[in-house]
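User: For documentation purposes, I need each entry recorded in a consistent format: the amino acid sequence on its own, followed directly by the corresponding structure tokens. There are two entries in this batch. Please keep commentary to a minimum and don't merge the entries.

Assistant: Recorded as requested. Entry 1:
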Amino acid sequence: MTFEHNKTNDILKLFEQLSQIPRCSGNEKAIRNWVINLAKENHFDAKTDNTGNVLIKVPASSGYENSPIVVLQGHLDMVCEKTPDSNHDFSKDPIKFIYDGEWLTADKTTLGADNGIGVAIAMALALDKELSHPPLELLFTVEEETGLVGASALEPAFIDGKILINLDGGGEGNFIIGCAGGLNSYISVPVEWAEVPSPYYQLMKIKAGGMKGGHSGIDINAQRANAIKVLARTLYFITQQVDIQLTHISGGTAHNAIPRDSEAVVFVPENQIEMFKTKVLEAEKTLKAEYQNTEPDLFIKVEATEKTSDQAITLEDTYTVIDFLQVLPHGVAAMSTEIEGLVESSTNLAKITLKNGQLKVLTSQRSSVESRLEALTYQIEAAARLVGAKAHSDTRYPAWQPNMASPLLAKSRQIYKELFDKEPVVKALHAGLESGIIGQKIPGMDMISIGPTNENLHSPDERLHIGTVGRIWDFMVALLKVR
């Protein structure tokens, strides 16, 4: 396709090339080799560290040799989510682009513009021989989506620049100057198994789906349903009239994605099958009404399934599991009292599985206030202890405190106003950004985060607004040109 902005084509071609390469978190070797080879083809120095982070050094344009180094930073990995009916194999299949008017999306999968488009813009800036710019360092990290792993392992001496532009920001026209910190909690709930009287029970599967999901930081205040919570509510509805026993339960995929789908398999007394189905319909009706404006496609379905075993969780522990999932928090815990509209603290009930005789639960807490983050985490660990579960919390990342006196911010605001005749929005995000970690490791780093408009992150509905790619390009060209 051809686009109005003369540079959008080049950037999207680079994005499409890198999108041919599988790059789920932890599988960045091929994409790392791609950026290194592209750098070497253009005679740039490139190196990696022990974690797999990449640094590409781009010499200054003529006349800019003595200008301060600017670091352009993004991450190589992507969240790999797909719809239940997709046959996409993220280990080998390329992302299939779909152009829909002003938007670019993918075929039933995440698009990976988070943060592939940032990597493509950085490479396009480096490859354009006509641009005027200071010395550049392109820093591409790994495993950002699984806990900011690459940034956390970064050695300060790996980079030389003290000015950093993160290209994983919150949409064109937004200058991000702060972010929340976070912490993940891992819970193991022991459950007892017993034999179910086979002739008198039917095995039934319950599926909760059709929900939007999304980024657990950016979308946590959008009043979207959590599929795990929907399933737990449904199971609770059922147990008011029917004694069921769990044999399987699962939901969610990643700590930073709001669960879209979940399912459970339960033994149901044969003489209560109709009541069981009635309670599911009641649950669906109630939950669809609650989420009618934000989750119009929410569904809860039941179907009979074949038995492979007569073993199930005891009735008592089935109730314990359902109660525990009901008690665990999800959603906004507090709004900021300093920045209007900013979520201060939240929890994402992210993933559940029944594995090795235990219910495994993953939750992810975020907050821009350290004491609130600790309090949320304690609440979750305390709930776990009350049901005899083991809990531990790690994968911590720090908050990035806004610096309104930043010289980079002042220069960026001025240039944006001159280019587009309007003020940018300066704000903090309720999401973890690598800038928080890098700024903590390298005191004095002057930072800002920007990026094209990319919606519905961490879900198969992810889409990139094509027109904003050119606007980010124009802004970056003008910013880098200033001596």
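Entry 2:
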Amino acid sequence: MRGAMRGDVTGVYTRLGLATFKVRQPARLRFCPDCLDDMEADHADLWWRREHQLAGIPVCSIHGTVLRHSDVSAGERNRHSFFAASREVCRTDAALAVEGASSEDMARLAELAVAAAGLLDAPPDPMDHGGRHDAYRRRAADVGLMRSAHRIDVVALHGAFRHRWGGVTELIAGLELGDDPERSWLTSMLRSRARAVHPLQHLMLAVMLDGLDGIEVDQPFGGGPWECRNPVVDHAGQPMIGTVAVRRDRDIVYGDFQCGCGYLYTVAKDRDGKVGQPRYRRFGPTFAPALRAALSRGESLRATAKALRLDPKTLMREAAMAGVEVPWTTKASGALPARDASAPTAAAPARATRKRRPRRNWFAIDTRLARSARMAAASIRTARPPVRVTHAEVERRIARRDWIVKRSAKLPRTVATIAELAEPVDAFRRRRLADHVASASDLRPCEVLRTVGLPSSWLPLVREAVAGVQRRGSRVA
């Protein structure tokens, strides 16, 4: 692919395997009616969301509602044209992206949409095709889906997959498992390294494996899915949350439960295993529309707070952060957001905004530093007296101290290169010993051992190195 990008790009889709995928891209740009309402209410403008255009994802990752097809074709003819999202092309009676899904399958589709949208903003670490295949087999073995080191339990694999995804495979074209488990794409993913499958199939298999109880799974809050506590959405109280972010503070374990609608709450578990009550953390994009609707109905502060399941002071703080004007005078809890600098008041003049730095191309920086790391390691190996090639020494020569360590997430290639070039202690001792005996005049083993700074256990190796130098010297004489 890199060679094709530098020259002839003919057949790029075939080389990528895109032409063989049965999961097809949508023929028209898609939209979520609820997202359009939120966009108009919050920003007075509409736009296309990229997660709505993902192949095989027919529901919105934010609201969990079924997407609709707009009037804008996504075909080859319009690829260089601009079509703004508008109510004219995003009609409320447009065709649905999927029909006939049960409530259970809708919940599964919503979770799949959240997982797929997450890959756009936080893609996983790169892994070659063979490495990913091996990782699947190791995970399948950990959760009991392998009969032996080489044989897959096909029946158990398909049973677990159907239990996890229900009728989703029948709702999305290209994901059908068929009647013969031995010949399905799911079995092929764990058996063959040669077959390329759609990213959606990778995602579904990975989510299924991660959701099974295994020896490597730590679930302090039990198995999911967990209920969404957002009181203003249709799926309130339903198990819509598939993953929980676990963090620890001393002896207390905290679980952050975030639904696809944006609502986030936290549950704590103490050292005795007692699980506390859920605590509100963030409402998400559904807060502002719900609050405006309550204001239009003329509801009081306490009635609105009760309907949103918030404390009145917390509601005031959230309203200030969302920029919604309210008629109530109750003081908000916690710190309020800073006043907008574009609308200064006489009592509080606008503070000068800080000039933003231009965005860095971290991919280019990573590539350059990885190349510099190899050059620095080669230079270190030629130093006299010998210097060990370590992460700190390489980093000191190509950047400031701890600069790479603090940005390791943005510089994966550099970090991997330095780890590859780092010299083990024993390897450095051997190199230092060889350098010393090649140039020293006093080749008594004990003296060499002391000068080079080696432990006494290295005395046999020192004698062997000294004897080798002496044999070469006698042949030259």
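Summary note for entry 2:
The CA atoms of residues 116 and 203 lie 7 Å apart.
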